[in-house]
Automatic annotation (TrEMBL), chain A:
<dbReference type="InterPro" id="IPR028082">
    <property type="entry name" value="Peripla_BP_I"/>
</dbReference>
<protein>
    <submittedName>
        <fullName>Leucine-, isoleucine-, valine-, threonine-, and alanine-binding protein</fullName>
    </submittedName>
</protein>
<keyword id="KW-0732">Signal</keyword>
<feature type="signal peptide">
    <location>
        <begin position="1"/>
        <end position="21"/>
    </location>
</feature>
<dbReference type="Pfam" id="PF13458">
    <property type="entry name" value="Peripla_BP_6"/>
</dbReference>
<feature type="compositionally biased region" description="Low complexity">
    <location>
        <begin position="30"/>
        <end position="40"/>
    </location>
</feature>
<dbReference type="InterPro" id="IPR051010">
    <property type="entry name" value="BCAA_transport"/>
</dbReference>
<dbReference type="InterPro" id="IPR028081">
    <property type="entry name" value="Leu-bd"/>
</dbReference>
<feature type="region of interest" description="Disordered">
    <location>
        <begin position="24"/>
        <end position="50"/>
    </location>
</feature>
TrEMBL record, chain B:
<feature type="transmembrane region" description="Helical">
    <location>
        <begin position="189"/>
        <end position="214"/>
    </location>
</feature>
<feature type="transmembrane region" description="Helical">
    <location>
        <begin position="6"/>
        <end position="33"/>
    </location>
</feature>
<feature type="transmembrane region" description="Helical">
    <location>
        <begin position="257"/>
        <end position="278"/>
    </location>
</feature>
<keyword id="KW-1133">Transmembrane helix</keyword>
<dbReference type="GO" id="GO:0022857">
    <property type="term" value="F:transmembrane transporter activity"/>
</dbReference>
<dbReference type="InterPro" id="IPR001851">
    <property type="entry name" value="ABC_transp_permease"/>
</dbReference>
<keyword id="KW-0812">Transmembrane</keyword>
<dbReference type="GO" id="GO:0005886">
    <property type="term" value="C:plasma membrane"/>
</dbReference>
<keyword id="KW-1003">Cell membrane</keyword>
Amino acid sequence: MTRWMKTGGILVVLAMLAACAAPTPPAPTATPAGPAQPAAQPSPTPAASPTPAVKKIVLGFTASQTGKLTKESKEQVQGLQLWLEDLQRAGGIRLPDGTVLQVELKFYDDESTKERVQQLYVKLINEDKADFLISPYSSGLADAAAVIAEQYGKIMITTGAASDSTYEKGYQHIFQIYTPASRYLTGAIDFLKKMDPNARRIAIVYENEKFSTDVVNAAKPYAESQGFEVVLFEGYETGTTDFGPFINKIMAARPDAIIGGGHFQDGSTLAKQLFEKKVPVKMIALLVAPAVPEFAQLGDAAVGVIGPSQWEPGARYSPDSAKAAGLPWYGPTVDQFVSAYKAKYGYEPGYHAAGGYAAGLVLQKAIEEAGSVETEKVKAALEKMDLMTFYGRIRFDTGKAHGKQIGHEMVYLQWRKDASGNLIRPIIWPEAAQAAKPIYPLSR
Amino acid sequence: MVSPGVWIASLIDGLLLGFVYGLAAMGLTLIWGVMRVINLAHGPIIALGMFGVYLLFAHAGVNPYLGLLVIALMGLLFGILVYAIAVHRVLNAPHLSTLLATFSVNMMIIGTGTALFTTTPRNIDISLGRLTIGPVVLLGTRLLAALAAVLITGGLYLFLYRTTLGKMVRAVASNRAAAELMGIPSTRVLAFSFGLGTMLAAAAGGLIATFFPFTILSGGTYELKSFVICVLGGLGNPTGALLGGLILGALEGLIPIALPVSWVPVIEFLLFVLLLLLRPQGLLGER
């Protein structure tokens, strides 16, 4: 018996070791997004030209060229570099007083860690004399950088960072490009309300983890405020593969719609099993998974599933839709951005790249509006900003959650089969960006 | 109030899965029973079974159930190879040596698998329809998996009790020295038994792959379940493994109806510890 227990003990310890020691996958594309395009050449200051006066400004940020965030960070930086290229082609930022600003990008590798981010942002501010800052990729790193930017009173545009909490700390200089996590699923609720006034019952099932719980904790009161009844509100563990019992519970609650999910694996599994069991709901909207191309592997189970995305190449924002919404338009059109990105990098941009470009664009516009590079004036311009770009609407909260994005909406894509039976995912919401008629209700 | 229909549906869902859990655990328990080795490469081998069936299906269009036969055979050969390379030399050393040896195999499979397949989840897109009886929706893939698990178990019993080679396996398991004196080539029998264990694991993996998505790391979950199941049923006892699998499956089906899903592992492992304390030989005892 004692020997048995000893063996049992070792066994459990080792099994747990085995579970824990599973190596994190090597980043598939480890090629660092090297500064292949050197940051803007220090502009040749035409010493004696009467007008215009040319001034150089430094835009600082860190990129995750190593570590776990390389892939997304690379896209974001590429988007930003494309913005810079377009800006240089246009001759720089022109201020009303005739001054021309040439922007120089200055960045370092943050190794995907918060510690490096904080050291490097201090360096960017003190040694490189950065005039403005852009955030690194991811909520965690952006949050770490925001502390430094705020301490030194520098404006930082955050992109690739959806967390709400950064903007609830009273910061005055941080401005968010991404739609915050709390609004990831609210659009799906609006969609449901618009499509079906009779839909009343919503089941919210979600992964027990920070991002997803943040999203659903905001979605639940929103759904209730819109007159829906939340008939099931329950989390499941990260890594769940068997949703069988859960689905039985969902069926017993007889919802009209299911929203929630978490990340790719659990979300796609849930979608697949909901389909297999023919759960009779009219709408399914899940986080993250439907926005990933591999979701198409689900085949028929993917059809009709809705997912939020910050931006898609098929987005229909245009000067016309801006006019319809009564907003000014600024920057390139969606097509111009997509084709320029494709020409430069050889593939379609995703929302990480679009966010990078938009961060530069928003700063550019704010400087133009301010007519100055002074922090306070640019800050005031950002606070006043309300416009439409290829990336969607941009408007910042100026109240308690200062700097939080309140204009930009998620786009919602819905999987469907095209005429030849291939799975595609056109945007179906918001209406301004709609590329196809939504499938509603689901036929299951 | 939860209607009885939900309980019944969840119980049946759980039991169907339980057969497959039991099959996986049988692989672990067989190796323990015959050679007193705890195979820590059990999980990755389950994952290899998943990938085997997936690759045949996705790239060669082989029906997953046909592919399962191929994978079972490959699992057998792979097990013999692992035995020859990693296990045989340390077989008579203390338990820790075999644990470490099989753990190394575990790490190697996971490392290679991660490099080859990354950890992007894969899916086998197959549907065999469904059968609806009142509140109970039975999925074709799961019914077939349970059926396959039962058939394989039956086959294993026929093999162990009705064939010469099977009898040799049992002889080596009960007393290796005596078996050798009777002229049984124990090394070959041990290698074969190890192969048989990995074959069961790979087959279980292949069946699981027809209804759950997986990565090369997915085996870990089923490995842990296998340990619990073996202890439930009695280590070294294949019938016990099947019974343990059914109990675990039923628990996984029923607990979430009454409690949040997070409680499932808590209750499962509580059971594991209680059994180790109160009935270390398992429900059915060692064979």
